[in-house]
Amino acid sequence: MSHPEVGERLASIKHVVLVLSGKGGVGKSSCTVQLALSLASQGHKVGVLDIDLCGPSIPRMLGLEGQQIHQASSGWVPIYVDASKRLGCMSIGFLLPSKNSSVVWRGPKKNAMIKLFLADVAWGELDYLLIDTPPGTSDEHLAVIEYLQEWNPDGAVVVTTPQAVALADVKKEVSFCNKVGLPVLGLIENMSGFVCPHCAECTNVFSTGGGEGLARHFDIPFLGRAPIDPNLVMLLEQEDKTVVPNVNDPSAEKQTTASIVETYQHCELSKIFNSISSRLHQNL
To answer: Are 63 and 81 in contact (CB under 8 A)?
Structure first.
């Protein structure tokens, strides 16, 4: 079935990339946010579409919780992180009466919401549209693939953690991509160690290297491994995203920036994700 209204929106977007994970809790949404922040800092114009309808966390991570969507003649206007409009977001989280409201929908209503997001959001010219999906291979995944497939999305980035229980589910995610004809652009091994903010020693809490081995097994690009960074956790949790996090000395004088895009560059993980986003860009 053709969906020309979706194609009209995608015509002004250079690259459409889905972010997938076979298992919940591997940090897929935080990886989506970090990819978006890294690409925006490199001069790209980026949109993040959050189709995790039952657990929309992107608005909170970007500091956009509580914002309201506006309807323009061209469609729904994304919520932007700053006045430069280089990073915008759309999520069902903006449509709920409160952050504690649950979404209790069956498949058809979820599918209709995803189609509405793809067809009615006025992104304008974008270099990247990153689509954050729920874990697994459920209705949301099938719906977004159905609506996008005709317009040839670039592919998917798969996120895992190093331990065997997560890798087993990621194998199913790669199998899903193969079945629906979605190219796998690369794999990120997230939570690959914990770097102590005081002594910089890395402890492999969940082991390490499992994601890289899996990528090698399936002959897909390995984009990199990312450790747990306490400063990133603080940044994503705090309300004011312009304050540079400092877990070593929380009482120190606060340093501020213009927006979360600049604040993120003060986190150690930004160096890793700048490299990951550059590899992703090269794979397209």
So the answer is: yes
